[in-house]
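Appendix B. Chain record.
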Amino acid sequence: MAADFDRKLRLTAAAIGCGTCKELVAAFRGVDPTTPFDTGRAYKWLQGRARPREQRVYDDWAKVLDLGRPAGWLLDCDIDVFLDVVGARYALDRDTLLRRADAFGGPASGAGAPSVGGDRYLCGTYLTYSHAWSPYYSGRLIRGTLSISAPIARGRLAATYTEALPTGRVSVQGAVVAVARSLYLHLREPGSEVPLFMTLFHPTPPASVLAGFLCGATFVGHDQRPSATRILAARLPAATVPTPRTDRYLEAGESVAADLEAGGLRLAAPAEVDAQIAGFLADSPGGGLDQIDAPTYGGLVDLFDRLLIGRGAAA
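Structure tokens predicted for this chain:
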């Protein structure tokens, strides 16, 4: 099955400089004058209402995109990997590709496809604060950056979350799924496919703050502990662009309000901001962090292994 074919097709158009469906059809005809890729069917494919049945379409697609990859790879690869490879081939950064793909042929969400509608107000840059998972930084907060950009197709916003760790910079990307009163961010690291997951309240405009949970496993430590922490993301003014070097572990007791001000957010009452954020991040039985260590899990394994093996031996 062609995974995310409509989104990949829009990104193809963005990469090779097509602004309309007719221009994309012309590109296909340039590599195959008798291609089955015609305007009428292309509109449906771009809207996600159908997929090509003829293998020739996919073979022509591989020629048009010219990545040196077979059609099968284009069909099966993850959308984030596709973005990275296409961006590298055409010397375009992710944000540029996403913006062009969203603008291709008009609104990204066509008839029959879900639309983000007013959810575009979520687009922007947020400074994030959550509990450090690494046992080497126990009790400290980690400051990261969350960027939400316009959808590439079918009404889904794109998100990128970054952290600066002692072992290097981590960047995970994925889709923002809005369902009722919640936002779900399914994020993965390109290449390694390491996943992170956020579940957040769905804010109303102007989306000054996002809040919820960040789930995954430790990146830095002697074991990978399944972890969940409260996370808060404060929106920066539109003209503010944080530098990646400012992502870091905060010192114990360091003021989050002061860090926000250094990041470009003007605060009228820093002490109140510190108190509210500290209360939110710590307001749970685990102090805002829930983590399972290896000995706890090992005890369960030992118990149930003996039960299972014991039953097996008795049988």
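Further analysis of this model is presented in Appendix C.
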